[in-house]
Amino acid sequence: MDENKHSFGEIFLAVIKNRILPFLIPASVPNIGIVLLGAFSLSYLIQWGWTELAPDKLFYDKSSLIGYSIITLVRLLALLLVYVLVTEHYHVEDHHTWGRNPGLGVFFMSFLVGVPAYLLSCSSHNLFIFAELKMENPIPSQLYYYVTTENTIFSTLLLLVIGCILPVLIEELFFRGLVYSVLPDKWWIRIPLPALISTLFAMNRLEFIPFLIIGLCASAVRYFSDSTLCSILARICMYCMSILFSSILPYQEPDLVQNAIDYNRTTLYASVIGFVLGIVMMIVLLKQLVYVKYRIKNEDISCHSEEGRPIAIPLRDHFHIDFFLGVAFLVLCWVLY
Which residues have a Cβ under 8 Å from the Cβ of 137 and sit 6 or more positions away? Predict the structure, then answer.
């Protein structure tokens, strides 16, 4: 009997030591769990504070350009804080997050990816609005948005910096840099997962499909070019195309149409054509980037390059308590939304 009690006690202590404690303690290597926990816990706190903040205590409206700029800046700084803390604590090298210099030709091809990416994202947005109106479904609300703008130099510069420059730089550095670097080196993981996480972080049901398409295009560029700067260039090209194509393929504002009958048929047909054209263009460009990935991989093998080697993170180290807490905060963000 004493031997059985002694044996049971040893087994119990072994389970605690080998199973429970490693689960409760964060991993000693960077992993997706600690990244999710940092990003979505801060996002939840910011979102909770923003929704609970009484409008009469502000000198501006939450839906004004100033209000939108403030909340966007705070959320971007939260991502940047997580990026700095994780990379410094775990000593993540720059070539893991930023990638490498693939050459001028690859930069140019990556920039061109922004053309079909815009066609696909804008067309999917317009088609989604039409489908919701056709089925008489209510248009999903937006948590962070602005409805009032001024035609001044200040408002234009503010929108350019807060709505374009900072989101592109910080989001790509975080999602296509940090998140990408801690994931296993498999295309079916490194392309869709950063795109999905960035889409969920955006907290916008109305733009879920367009944001997912943008994320997939940026992640594909990051994977095949092995450069975060390439995905940044693709995002910049998208904003350029939104200006150049505004008259050919306009972005349908949901508050300007009340039902499917009011929907501009020219915009609808242009969206269908733009979506098909975007798919064809994207296939051609990604085919060239696949060749770039193949060439880079062969050069790494022949030169024994350390830059091409991903961070060695065992799969079990991704699933500690921080991973499940991160997922819980993600769910809380959308429940609060």
Answer: none
- Assigned domain for 1 exists: no
How would DSSP label each residue in 84-108?
HHHHHHTT--HHHHTB----HHHHH
The tens digit of pLDDT for each residue in 213-242 reads 999 999 999 999 999 999 999 999 999 999
3-state secondary structure of 204: strand
d(CA 165, CA 86) in angstroms, rounded, equals 23
> Does the residue 101 lie in any domain?
yes
Residues 6+ apart with CB under 8 A from 173: 80, 83, 97, 98, 228
Contacts of 193 (CB under 8 A, 6+ apart): 32, 179, 183
pTM above 0.90, yes or no: yes
The Cα–Cα gap between 3 and 154 comes to: 80
pLDDT tens-digit series, residues 62-102: 888 888 999 999 999 999 999 999 999 999 999 999 999 89
**Domain that residue 198 falls in:** 28-336
Q: Domain total for the chain?
A: 1
Inside any domain, residue 8:
no
Residue 22 lies in a domain: no
